[in-house]
């Protein structure tokens, strides 16, 4: 409450500097908000000089103080307080304000010289051009201004590197992050910087360079587990499945261990780089995966790579984690690697089928069917397009909610019918053709539309696969006419499909309609391979849980059937010539 006095102000500002640093160090959390103490200190300086600045913003207040206050004894305390203000602004990503402040703190000739030598980055150049004020022996500081300057340089380079990385300016981001890596920071932050360098190199199409940076991050701090997850992603991009699975396994094991209590990597620094850098892009790059997410990635990659036994083991481990309240442990903001839970069940069923555990696959699918049946309305209209209306239109929010509900119902329908499809193939493998036909029949009564949204496109694929599957079981039972109808209907859904066309030819052949079979076979052979490939590649990627069904629907007897038809055509040609 005492009035400001010039002789006491150097001590007062130094005490303010130290107290603010103690407050920051004691909280040990990211700096947020405004440093109100700094503003009050500046107002005290103006008051002692007979001026006022209550109505000024913080930037204008600093400009007024630094331009109008020329008392020599106040310059060093004000410079140190300015460095603290820069720390607060860096934490708020107010980089322009920081640059403007350091331009005021530095003599014009120093600032100009810095621009000439280091013009590629204005902010770093003006911070480096700032002359650190000498420390007085009578006024000890809890953290030197020289160390604070180094931390500000590192944080500024790191923050700008992250901004450029987010903007897609990868060469500039790489330069700034490399500058930060050579700066003044703890091992924890250095590992984070190397992780960001790895992500930047990966975005630039340099996977080997990315791996070098990521491995360096792990050498610096093995507790930087996000680096390990990025290593797995790079190996996935390179197609090195063994290395990817090894990285994921290490990540899963590391997540399962209780990490040692992290001792402060820089115990004598109250202001640290990690308190200044906390942006959404960094949070995204350094997101820690839950062990269940990594377990799912292991299962998924094993299934995609045909490592069926390993996939089954990982899927069953994952399903057991569901009993531990997985939904409460995994973020629901879309950042998780996990798909919807019914899809995981269906992928597990696919893995069990491929491993020959057909009865277990049937049981897993029954769980999906029972859980989704009550979520599907009795009547579900399927339009050709499900597009939300413009938000400005009346009732748009209500319509958008209804569309979202309809999409969810379509997803549930797709999961349930996929469950029946898997059960059909499982019963077929067990030799139970009648039971298989029953399950396949539950999938075929689906609508046919064009210009499909993703959910309906999946349903159409399921319908196609179920018709082929049911047709194969009719063939097994000798019901060739019923089989022929199913194959004809499947070709209406997917014209030119090689498997359906081959099965159609086989059904005609078994019905002793050999001339028709030969004509269809010739028509199929005359269609160019490019068209067939294009037909197969059309549309969106098939969900992983349907890939095994597509494999099972392939026609297995191409060569014997082709020889029989060629023999028939050869004999027919001889009869004609004779």
Automatic annotation (TrEMBL):
<dbReference type="GO" id="GO:0036297">
    <property type="term" value="P:interstrand cross-link repair"/>
</dbReference>
<dbReference type="Pfam" id="PF13432">
    <property type="entry name" value="TPR_16"/>
</dbReference>
<dbReference type="InterPro" id="IPR039684">
    <property type="entry name" value="FANCG"/>
</dbReference>
<keyword id="KW-0802">TPR repeat</keyword>
<dbReference type="GO" id="GO:0043240">
    <property type="term" value="C:Fanconi anaemia nuclear complex"/>
</dbReference>
<dbReference type="InterPro" id="IPR019734">
    <property type="entry name" value="TPR_rpt"/>
</dbReference>
<dbReference type="InterPro" id="IPR011990">
    <property type="entry name" value="TPR-like_helical_dom_sf"/>
</dbReference>
<protein>
    <submittedName>
        <fullName>FANCG protein</fullName>
    </submittedName>
</protein>
<feature type="repeat" description="TPR">
    <location>
        <begin position="464"/>
        <end position="497"/>
    </location>
</feature>
């Amino acid at each position: 409450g005492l009035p400001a006095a010039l002789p006491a102000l150097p001590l007062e500002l130094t005490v303010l500097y130290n107290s603010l640093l103690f407050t920051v160090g004691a909280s040990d959390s990211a700096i947020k908000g405004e440093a109100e103490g700094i503003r009050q200190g500046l107002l005290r300086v103006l008051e002692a000089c007979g001026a006022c600045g209550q109505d000024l913003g913080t930037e204008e207040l600093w400009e007024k103080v630094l331009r109008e206050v020329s008392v020599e004894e106040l310059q060093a305390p004000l410079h140190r307080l300015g460095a603290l203000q820069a720390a607060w602004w860096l934490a708020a990503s107010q980089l322009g304000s920081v640059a403007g402040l350091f331009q005021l703190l530095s003599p014009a000739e120093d600032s100009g010289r810095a621009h000439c030598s280091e013009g590629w980055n204005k902010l770093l150049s003006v911070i480096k051009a700032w002359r650190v004020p000498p420390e007085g022996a009578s006024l000890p500081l809890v953290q030197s201004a020289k160390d604070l300057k180094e931390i500000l340089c590192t944080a500024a380079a790191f923050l700008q590197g992250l901004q450029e990385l987010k903007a897609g300016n990868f060469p500039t981001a790489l330069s700034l992050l490399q500058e930060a890596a050579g700066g003044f920071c703890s091992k924890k932050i250095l590992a984070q910087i190397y992780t960001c360098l790895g992500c930047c190199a990966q975005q630039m199409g340099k996977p080997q360079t990315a791996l070098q940076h990521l491995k360096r991050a792990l050498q610096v701090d093995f507790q930087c587990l996000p680096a390990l997850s990025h290593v797995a992603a790079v190996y996935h991009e390179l197609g090195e499945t063994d290395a990817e699975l090894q990285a994921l396994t290490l990540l899963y094991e590391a997540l399962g261990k209780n990490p040692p209590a992290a001792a402060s990597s820089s115990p004598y620094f109250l202001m640290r780089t990690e308190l200044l850098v906390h942006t959404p892009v960094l949070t995204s790059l350094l997101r820690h995966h839950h062990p269940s997410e990594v377990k799912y990635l292991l299962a998924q990659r094993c299934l995609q790579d045909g490592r069926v036994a390993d996939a089954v083991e990982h899927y069953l481990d994952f399903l057991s984690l569901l009993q531990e309240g997985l939904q409460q442990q995994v973020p629901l903001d879309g950042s998780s690697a996990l798909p919807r839970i019914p899809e995981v069940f269906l992928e597990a069923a696919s893995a069990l089928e491929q491993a020959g555990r057909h009865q277990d696959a049937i049981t897993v699918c029954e769980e999906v069917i029972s859980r989704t049946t009550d979520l599907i309305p009795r009547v579900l209209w399927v339009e050709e397009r499900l597009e939300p209306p413009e938000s400005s239109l009346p009732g748009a929010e209500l319509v958008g909610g209804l569309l979202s509900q309809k999409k969810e119902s379509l997803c549930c329908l797709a999961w349930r019918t996929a469950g029946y499809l898997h059960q059909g193939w499982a019963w077929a493998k067990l030799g139970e053709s009648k039971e298989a036909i029953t399950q396949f029949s539950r999938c075929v009564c689906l609508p046919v539309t064009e210009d499909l949204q993703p959910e309906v496109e999946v349903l159409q694929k399921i319908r196609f696969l179920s018709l082929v599957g049911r047709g194969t079981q009719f063939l097994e039972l000798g019901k060739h006419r019923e089989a022929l109808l199913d194959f004809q209907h499947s070709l209406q859904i997917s014209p030119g499909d090689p498997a359906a066309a081959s099965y159609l030819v086989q059904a005609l052949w078994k019905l002793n309609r050999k001339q028709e079979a030969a004509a269809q076979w010739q028509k199929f052979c005359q269609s160019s391979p490019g068209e067939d490939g294009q037909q197969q590649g059309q549309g969106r990627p098939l969900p992983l849980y349907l890939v095994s069904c597509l494999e099972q629907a392939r026609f297995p007897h191409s060569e014997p059937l082709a020889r029989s038809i060629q023999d028939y055509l050869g004999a027919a040609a001889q009869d004609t010539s004779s």
